[in-house]
UniProtKB/TrEMBL annotation:
<keyword id="KW-0378">Hydrolase</keyword>
<dbReference type="InterPro" id="IPR036412">
    <property type="entry name" value="HAD-like_sf"/>
</dbReference>
<dbReference type="Pfam" id="PF13344">
    <property type="entry name" value="Hydrolase_6"/>
</dbReference>
<protein>
    <submittedName>
        <fullName>HAD-IIA family hydrolase</fullName>
    </submittedName>
</protein>
<dbReference type="GO" id="GO:0016787">
    <property type="term" value="F:hydrolase activity"/>
</dbReference>
<dbReference type="InterPro" id="IPR006357">
    <property type="entry name" value="HAD-SF_hydro_IIA"/>
</dbReference>
<dbReference type="InterPro" id="IPR023214">
    <property type="entry name" value="HAD_sf"/>
</dbReference>
<dbReference type="Pfam" id="PF13242">
    <property type="entry name" value="Hydrolase_like"/>
</dbReference>
Length: 249
């Protein structure tokens, strides 16, 4: 989503045309984000505000992927959650109980209000046997003032305190991609990933067997490509260059 379709609440070049072409050609698609703060309804509204008509069922967040993963692993279990509405809502929707009393899992997501009290409680619950899962490994998130600590940074703190590594569900874990493919009944060999980050989007797409496109409107610059051992199938300036690749075939 961010860096491909929008940037700082503005639609990027070609975003409207790309989404419209997908819809005109009746293509199955999902808009992905590792951000677990917002619900899919919130994100659909945010996209609509910049002129992108994308219903909430077309949005796939690390929070929703995490909830789906946990439900598949241990249905109707319980979790202590550090996170916002996006993660808590997703877990409620799969039948999870949110509790701080003997939970099956500690689930860490992104938050703008990490507190020492919550982190301390998570450390104690993991030490008592709760399994540790996190929505995504991103160490920082953007803000108008500059980078701020995100899920990956707090996960490192919890790991240092408990000796337990979390299982990260979001990108670059291909679990998030494969669960999304299952949601729209798509096959990897006929699906493409369009992303702006080499270390999450492109590598996740490659590991899931998708065709991959890197757009240069977000995090990764062209001169950074040589730093990685893997390459996307193509590199384009913006998603505008990919509109014509969507055919009725």
């Amino acid at each position: 989503m961010d860096g491909v379709l929008i940037h700082e609440e503005v639609a990027l070049p070609g975003a409207k045309e790309f989404v419209s072409r997908l819809q005109e050609q009746d293509k199955e698609f999902l808009v992905l984000t590792n951000n677990s703060i917002y619900t899919r309804r919130d994100l659909s509204t945010r996209l609509a505000d910049v002129g992108l008509d994308i219903p909430e069922e077309r949005i796939w967040t690390s929070a929703v992927a995490t909830a789906q993963f946990l439900s598949n692993q241990v249905p109707d279990a319980s979790a202590y959650v550090i996170g916002e509405a996006g993660l808590k809502t997703a877990l409620h929707e799969v039948g999870y109980t949110l509790t701080d009393t003997d939970p099956d899992f500690v689930v860490l997501g992104e938050s703008r209000t990490y507190s020492f009290q919550n982190i301390t409680q998570a450390v104690q619950l993991i030490d008592q046997g709760a399994r540790f899962v996190a929505t995504n490994p991103d160490a920082t998130g953007p803000s108008p003032e500059g980078p701020i600590p995100a899920t990956g940074s707090v996960a490192s703190l919890l790991t240092e305190a408990t000796g337990q590594d979390p299982y990260f569900v979001g990108k670059p874990n291909p679990v998030m991609i494969r669960s999304g493919l299952n949601r729209i009944r798509a096959h990897s060999e006929s699906t493409a990933m369009v992303g702006d980050r080499m270390d999450t989007d492109v590598v996740a797409g490659i590991e899931a067997g998708l065709t991959t496109y890197l757009v240069l409107t977000g995090s990764t610059d062209r001169d950074e490509l040589t730093e990685y051992a893997y390459r996307p199938n193509d590199v384009v300036e913006s998603i505008a260059e990919l509109v014509e690749t969507i055919s009725s075939g």
